Amino acid sequence: MNTTSTTPASIQVTPTTVTFCQQIWQLESTIQLVKHSDERTYLVTETTPFHPVSHIWPDHPADRGEVTIDGCFHEVVDCLVGAVEEATGELYVDKQIPVKRDTQGWMFVVVHVLDGLITPQSNLVGLQVDKDYQQALSRGHTAGHLAYLALNKVLAQGYWRKDADRKDPHGNFDFNSYAQENSFVTEDRCVDHYRLGKTLRKRGLNSAQFIEDIAEVEQKVNAVLQVWLSREVDITMRLEGDKLTDSRYWGCDLGEDHYAEIPCGGTHIRNIKEISGLSVSLRKLDEKNIEMHTVVNGNTQ
After folding, report:
1. Pick from 126, 158, 144: which is nearest to 275 by CA?
2. Which of 71, 123, 239, 274 has its CA 20 to 30 A from that of 290?
3. What is the per-residue pLDDT for 12?
4. Each residue's pLDDT tens digit, 244-282
5. R_g over Cα of the chain
6. Do residues 147 and 190 lie in contact, with contact meaning Cβ atoms separated by under 8 Å?
């Protein structure tokens, strides 16, 4: 990317500190890096409440919101992951990132994308996330976790011919891990695409029976979800650090034999009761592909 850089004097770029798992939607922070390209400004701050879309697994969209620079409001038109090479100070954004996270000599940062060529005069900016939008995504993402755990539980009751190596947090055969091709979260919704290929059948799943019984499986998944929703238990985010690349884990006690904990970098609600209704539909695309559509009736009161 052809860029011009405006880095504040004496500011050393460090990995971005993120607060989106703490449900902090507004804060002030110091500018670390400003770059311009294609009539847009790429802003990196020391700390941010914004969740960026992942360049590796873009299942959770970027947060929306605005930044305040020198008293003027600017819409954040996108929020991306970036990596700064320490030796050169060069910023690589999204798919251009050439290294894995935690590579020595590289700092992973959150990049706020603004329209226009903006040159801040002050080193301090305000950042404010669209709370309603983020919470709608959080409900959709949490619902997706609940739905796949429920689907795993139902399929473990008679649809596997032999023991599968992978187990989910509840100890059930992890159909989701084996079969998921992609997943995408939107406001109060999550869509998962699963492929029922030859490899999955060799691992023991009776795919043909699953397809034949898909309406019954859907009904049972929804029944499991209703039981879990009735618990109104807390959801936790266990953080191994406050930097963008530090591991984060979603956790919830759903009354099963084991506590559910899932590696996840997205944003989430804090209690099951924030989802007042939840329904799953399983859709057969063809003999080898299905989709699971999870829809939330969110209660934000």
Report:
1. 144
2. 274
3. 81
4. 999 999 999 999 999 999 999 999 999 999 998 999 999
5. 21
6. yes
SS (H, E, C) the chain: CCCEECCCCCCCCCCCEECHHHCCCEEEEEEEEEEEECCEEEEEECEECCCCECCCCCCCCCCCEEEEECCEEEEEEEEEEEEEECCCCCEEEHHHCCCCCCCCCEEEEEEEEEECCCCCCCCEEEEEECHHHHHHHHHHHHHHHHHHHHHHHHHCCCCECCCCCCECCCCCECHHHHHEEEEEEECCEEEEEEECCHHHHHCCECHHHHHHCHHHHHHHHHHHHHHHHCCCCEEEEEECCCECCCCEEEEECCCCCCCEEEECCCCCCCEHHHEEEEEEEEEEEECCEEEEEEEEEECCC
Cα-Cα-Cα-Cα torsion 218, 222, 224, 228, nearest 10 degrees, comes to 150
Residue 34 pLDDT exceeds 90? yes
pTM of the model: 0.94
Residue type, 85: E
Output the pLDDT for position 8. 52
Per residue in 99-145, pLDDT tens? 999 899 999 999 999 999 999 999 999 999 999 999 999 999 999 99
CB 270 within 8 A of CB 135: no
Closest CA to 80 of 104, 56, 103: 56
In total, the chain counts a number of residues equal to: 301
